[in-house]
Specification:
7-stranded antiparallel beta sheet; elongated
Length: about 850
């Protein structure tokens, strides 16, 4: 037996034939690959294709990222300081911090478990030859020296060498170059690239962590987490700057209270801890993590796999959705409807029967395994069409760039593919014959005989001679019209980008209910990037698009400040999916597309898209709304600390009081409101939107509590009374902003408000000592009531002022005026 586990000699490579059956080469020698014993030996040595390098967190990393944080270190220091001074009742923030950490770990682990299960179902597979038989196994179960069979649509899972056959690969995901590269016997294959056409046997040289794609992944991971979504980016910036500010502010407040104001060491520590505690957005990061994790789990139950959680937010912001026709608007499968002899056919003996036999010969030898060729083979098998006696010379598989394939027989050279690309300048000769079918939404392929062929010998015919047409149909998805109607109502523009004839694609798009589907263009007429940029404004449907043009269309839309999502199911969509803000793949399509996408529809149901967008909008809108609650406390604590430093007063509140307010006006309502359904489209900048809601309340808190502290000093009121009254004032303003951000109200929001009011009253009345809530004097109570009424008016007018200011600066005309004045008066020079 000839064992292929050892390297082939050049002579042996020559005799391998990828079209041979039963894994035999042309000499009849079996290709047995590795034996089971050899596979076990390599597994024992660790020479498998499993990689430890992953962009997803491990269990240990999840626990570490939630437990060993900068703010948890700050909380530990604050805890130690409070224990040193014996102020144990002010440790009420500890259960919240511990709860935050435990919940964050639990939800991330839960989401990881769900995604791991789904990723296993969608894991890449490979066809391997072992013990002389073909097997389909998960790609990570491959071992070094395995022999695999690669064909169109496969992603190359490990570094390999072509042993036999030939394929065209695209290495754009690795090198950035989009050209298709021909690989033949002896050529190297880089993992991470994908097969565009052809078929070959390849031997794995470097697997697992040694492969090229693993090394690239390791480098990318070492450089950081990559691009983050707008929401996460701003939250991280907020956390970073707060982390920088709290240390000097805490030191200043302690020194001022202890040295300048002559307070006791205990009082100075407690006041400093209260200020620092108020500036830390301890629940905001948890809220974001939990909301994203829960959304990931909900999407998983709907058969939607997220390779990248940031795609949730990106999808929610999408305003242009680019879709492919086949597999997205239509069902993934095709079927041959009819065979038609061309009126230009020069062969008098060619009839439908002879045409069918030619098609059987052609489909038997061509290496393509795309949906079109599968439909043709199914038609041949269903109608029991026998192969002829033609003798094969050479084949050239279909490519997305050429849009046709070629086969050279001794009896003649034949081409099958897009009529426009085969006939080129002579397309008008046959256009009338196929327009009838294209106008009804059918896809039409041309079979032609080539007189001169670069892959075979020169024939005496001297040109392209049409033979006949293969008419194929794709049924429209049942939910396509309702899905596109939803996107129209949501203000999301649809661009249909397809390699098919533009008239055919336009007709299909009309039937699917896509707005503007009658506006179509043949992308082969778009010669430059400028043409494409102008076309994306005019047209909805793009036909005869090459993979590179799909990528350029996406980039042109992005240059116009659109957030672009790209859906696809084939290798010709990967370049565009790579550049899109968010990429969505159908699991029924090519494996390479599914692995390259951020989001995978496991049931290949495009009707899931509205639900995915809804999930994204719910997460971002609710986090945005709840974040404003957390920011109110941060704004108040920072400005109150500055106020205390300027006016040389001791920070008026205690940590336990900050914890009480945080629990019932920020944390609990924030989490409850984050669960509410929210279908509103996301608009504007995340941090600007959050600040517009938080700033009026934060300023109201500072002004009202600051005025109360000044009046307390004037009337010589005890600091405990001022602290209790200040806590009540903060509660009043806190409920004001909850009411503000909850409009319009529903039963759930009324319930959230009522639960938190009852909770606050219960803690104040029955757990007063724990939260430092003391009985206050009549004059202090009167001051609290007066400032509470004043706070309502103050909050209302500050909200109106901020909204007016935002509207003024949000107007493009006003921004241009301001820029002109800056240039005129050289304000910043």
């Amino acid at each position: 037996m000839h064992n292929i586990c050892r390297p082939y000699t050049q002579e042996e490579v020559f005799y391998l034939d990828t079209n041979s059956e039963n894994n035999l080469d042309t000499r009849g020698v079996p290709i047995i690959g590795l034996t089971s014993e050899e596979v076990r030996e390599r597994i024992d040595k660790g020479l498998t294709n499993h990689t430890d390098i992953s962009t997803q967190k491990t269990v240990g990393q999840i626990v570490k990222s939630n437990l060993l944080t900068y703010f948890n270190l700050i909380f530990l220091i604050l805890t130690v300081l409070l224990c040193i001074v014996g102020s144990f009742r002010n440790l009420t923030f500890l259960p919240v911090i511990i709860g935050n950490t435990v919940i964050g770990i639990f939800q991330e682990l839960r989401a990881k478990k769900t995604l791991d299960k789904m990723s296993m179902l969608n894991a890449p597979h490979s066809i391997v030859v072992r013990d002389g038989e073909q097997q389909q196994i998960q790609s990570e179960e491959l071992v070094k020296d395995d022999i695999i069979i690669l064909s169109a649509g496969n992603q190359i899972c490990a570094d390999a060498t072509v042993l036999s056959g030939s394929i065209s690969v695209n290495e754009a995901l690795l090198t950035g170059e989009s050209d298709e590269i021909k690989k033949k016997s002896g050529d190297r294959l880089m993992s991470g690239s994908f097969v565009v056409s052809g078929q070959c046997y390849a031997k794995l040289d470097k697997v697992g962590n040694e492969s090229y794609i693993s090394q690239l992944t390791a480098q990318a991971k070492a450089m950081g987490d990559g691009e983050q979504s707008e929401m996460i980016r701003y939250i991280n910036k907020l956390v970073k700057w707060v982390g920088i500010i709290i240390i000097p502010v805490g030191i200043i407040l302690f020194c001022q209270a202890y040295i300048m104001n002559g307070e006791t060491f205990k009082k100075s520590v407690v006041s400093m801890v209260a200020a620092v505690l108020g500036m830390i957005p301890e629940g905001l990061y948890l809220l974001t993590t939990v909301a994203l994790a829960l959304s990931t789990i909900r999407l998983a139950k709907k058969q939607v796999l997220l390779h990248d959680m940031k795609s949730i937010e990106t999808l929610a912001r999408v305003d242009v959705l680019c879709v492919d026709k086949t597999g997205t608007i239509t069902e993934p499968g095709m079927q041959v409807t009819e065979l038609v002899i061309s009126g230009r056919c020069g062969d008098a003996e060619m009839d439908k029967r002879a045409f069918a036999h030619l098609l059987a010969d052609y489909s038997a030898v061509i290496e393509d395994n795309n949906a079109t060729m599968e439909a043709i083979r199914a038609y041949v098998a269903k109608n029991e069409i026998e192969k002829g006696s033609r003798t094969l010379l050479k084949t050239q598989p279909f490519t997305s760039a050429n849009k046709y394939s070629k086969v050279s027989f001794v009896e003649g050279d034949y081409m099958l593919g897009a009529p426009e690309f085969i006939m080129k300048d002579r397309y008008e000769e046959i256009s009338e014959e196929i327009e009838e079918y294209q106008s009804k939404g059918y896809r039409v392929l041309l079979m032609a005989e080539s007189g001169e062929d670069s892959i075979g010998s020169v024939r005496p015919l001297g040109g392209i001679s049409p033979i006949g047409y293969i008419v194929l149909s794709n049924p429209i998805r049942e939910n396509a019209e309702s899905t596109f109607t939803y996107f129209k109502e949501q203000g999301v523009a649809i661009k249909v980008i397809s390699g098919d004839n533009p008239a055919t694609v336009s007709e299909v798009a009309k039937r699917a209910g896509i707005d503007g589907a009658e506006n179509y263009v043949d992308a082969s007429t778009l010669a430059s990037e400028k043409d494409i940029t102008e076309a994306v404004d005019k047209y909805t449907v793009f036909g005869r698009v090459t993979p590179k043009q799909k990528q350029l269309i996406v980039r042109a839309l992005q240059k116009q400040k659109h957030t672009v999502a790209m859906t696809g199911d084939g290798v010709n969509d990967i370049l565009a999916m790579k550049d899109a803000d968010c990429s969505i793949a159908m699991a029924s399509g090519s494996e390479a597309a599914a692995q390259a996408a951020q989001t995978v529809l496991l049931d290949s149901d495009f009707g899931r898209m509205p639900y995915v967008v809804f999930e994204g909008r719910q997460v971002v809108n609710n986090i945005q709304r709840s974040a404003s609650l957390f920011l109110v406390k941060n704004i108040f604590s920072l400005l109150m600390a500055i106020f205390s430093a300027i006016f040389a007063i001791t920070y008026p509140l205690e940590p336990s009081q900050i914890s009480l307010i945080s629990m019932f006006t920020i944390g609990l309502p924030g989490f409850l409101l984050a669960l509410e359904p929210n279908r509103n489209r996301i608009e504007g900048n995340f941090m600007v939107n959050v600040m517009l809601k938080a700033l009026p309340a934060g300023l109201t808190d500072v002004l009202s509590v600051g005025a109360l502290v000044i009046c307390g000093q004037v009337f010589n009121l005890p600091s405990e009374d001022i602290a209790t009254a200040g806590t009540m004032l903060l509660a009043v303003v806190g409920f004001m902003i909850i009411i503000k951000i909850s409009h319009p109200f529903n039963k759930m929001k009324y319930g959230v408000l009522l639960i938190n009011i009852i909770g606050l009253l219960f803690c104040g009345l029955f757990l007063g000592r724990l939260f430092a809530i003391e009985s206050i004097s009549n004059i202090c109570f009167l001051l609290m009531v007066v400032f509470a009424f004043a706070a309502e008016s103050m909050f209302r007018y500050l909200t109106l002022f901020v909204e007016k200011l935002s509207s003024f600066f949000g107007d493009e005309k006003n921004r241009r005026k301001i820029r002109r004045k800056i240039r005129k008066y050289n304000i910043f020079k």
